[in-house]
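Friendly challenge for the regulars: who can give me the structure tokens for this chain first? No prize, just bragging rights.
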Amino acid sequence: MALKRRNQRKVEFNMSSMSDLVFLLLIFFMLTSTLIAPNAIKLLLPQSSSRTMAKQTVTVYINENNDYFVEERKVAEEQLQPEILVELNKANQGSEGTVVVRSDKNVPVQYVVNVIDAVNNINNETHQNHKVLLATSPKK
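First reply, four minutes later:
Bragging rights claimed.
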């Protein structure tokens, strides 16, 4: 008696659903990556070939109109030191915080020096050792 099996298994793998999934993921990541703004304040940073990486505690921006921003909040020059101190205390970095200065490349050096002076005054008053770094873009 010869019985034949009606249901035969196919060993083929269908890739059409996998490619649909890959394209959907690609579209999702392309759309979401354009929504992320790494720097909310648009600046043309000066160029440098050196690379210094540090964990930033506080970011101070200086735009082309010579306005100061501490963590994206506009601050007057007189309020620069107290605002930086508040942000350093929020970060709870102890005595080793880092202040990153992101200055437009057309800003006079005096505005950058004002930020450095503010951090140095904080260090002298609180007997701490916060560092100041100038953010740059890579040379082309």
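Residues 47-138 form one domain. The mean pLDDT is 80. Your move, everyone else.
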